[in-house]
Amino acid sequence: RVLLEADLGKPGKATVEAYGIRIDQVDKKLQGVLRLSLSLENETAGASGSLSLEAKGLTLPWARRPIEKLTAFLALSGTPEHLDLTEIVLKTPLVTVSGKGLLSGAKNLGAWRDANVWLNLSSSDFDYEPMVSMLPVNRFPDWLKKLLTSEIRRGKSRFSLARYSGPVMGFFSGEALMKNLTVVQDLKGQSFSHGRSPERVTGITGKVIYRAGDIELQNLSGIMGKSRVNRVNLIFHDVAKPFMKLTGNADLDMPAPDFLRT
Fold first, then answer.
1. pLDDT digits 0-9 by tens, 127-137
2. What is the C-alpha separation between 217 and 28, in angstroms, rounded?
3. In sequence order, which residues have a C-beta less than 8 Å from that of residue 75 and are 6 or more positions away?
4. Between the N and C ends of the chain, which has fewer C-beta atoms within 10 Å?
5. CB contact set of 259 (below 8 Å; sequence gap of 6+)
């Protein structure tokens, strides 16, 4: 069902609402029902408007369970060549993401594929394991899948920064996405084991930074047995390449037996 409204007193203002859109009609790999509301108003300096989406029962091809409800809101103003994304909000039962952005370089709205985008986002706290279950981990390298699904467990996290600056089409290219994406993840009480020992490091705090193809573990601390891991800094360089480099340093306070088990 589609509803189109126009204000005769303001010829440049229009609202479009669509209900009951089956998402599998847009992409057969997805499931769910979508509701959409779009409001636009032409002004002297360009246009302003907003887009609201609500998806129920959204099923992603790789996810173990559907997202019961997802809502998104986008407020924008400007011209196709310089479009300010003044408010971006994405909400699910697991996490809320918000921020702002900029779309530039499109000659018209139909040429968005040629545009560049800048996004600056952050998230609320979220439970680690339910969030990881929504990721396409089967498409990740084996070492990264193992790290996310078995070596790191429990606790909470928060994305204090998620920034992308690059071409719109870079979102659809793994190499371009990793090159242009910076993510800072704050860790809160997670546990870690590398699999060679039953011992786990618990109560982990610190940051994980994904930047320009590298993954940096910054100022990690935690408890292993009766010992304290005061600070660990590691950088996994060029994680998408076959031969990955690792650099780092650590400050440990533990008996020799605990150290030998690590």
1. 999 988 888 78
2. 38
3. 48, 49, 50, 85, 86, 87
4. N
5. 227, 252
Give the pair of three-digit tokens for residue 32: 């769910």
Two tokens at 258? 């605990």
Q: What is the mean pLDDT of the chain?
A: 83
| Nearest alpha-carbon partner for 203 in 222, 179, 184, 218 | 222
pTM value surpassing 0.70: yes
Q: Tell me how far CA of residue 58 lies from CA of 71, 91, 98, 134, in angstroms.
A: 11, 13, 20, 11
Take residue 129 and report the two structure tokens written for it.
């394991």
Burial class of residue 154 (count of CB atoms within 10 Å of its CB; 0-12, 13-18, 19+)? middle
Structure tokens given for 250: 């650590």
Instruction: Please report the pLDDT score of residue 177 as a whole number.
Output: 77
Extract the tokens encoding 257: 């037996």
Encode 98-130: b = buried (16+ Cβ within 10 Å), e = exposed: ebebbbebbeeeeeeeebbbebbbebeebebee
With a cut of 50, say whether residue 260 has pLDDT above it.
Answer: no
Cα separation, 130 vs 155, in Å, equals 11
Q: Which ranges of the chain does DSSP label H, i.e. alpha helix? A: 128-132, 142-146, 174-180, 256-261
Residue 164 DSSP code? E
Q: How far apart are CA 76 and CA 51, in angstroms?
A: 8
Q: Dig out the tokens for 246 from the structure.
A: 């690792």
pLDDT digits (tens, 9 = 90+) for 167-222: 888 876 667 777 888 999 999 999 988 655 667 889 999 998 988 878 888 898 98
Q: What is the residue whose two structure tokens read 């921020």?
A: 99
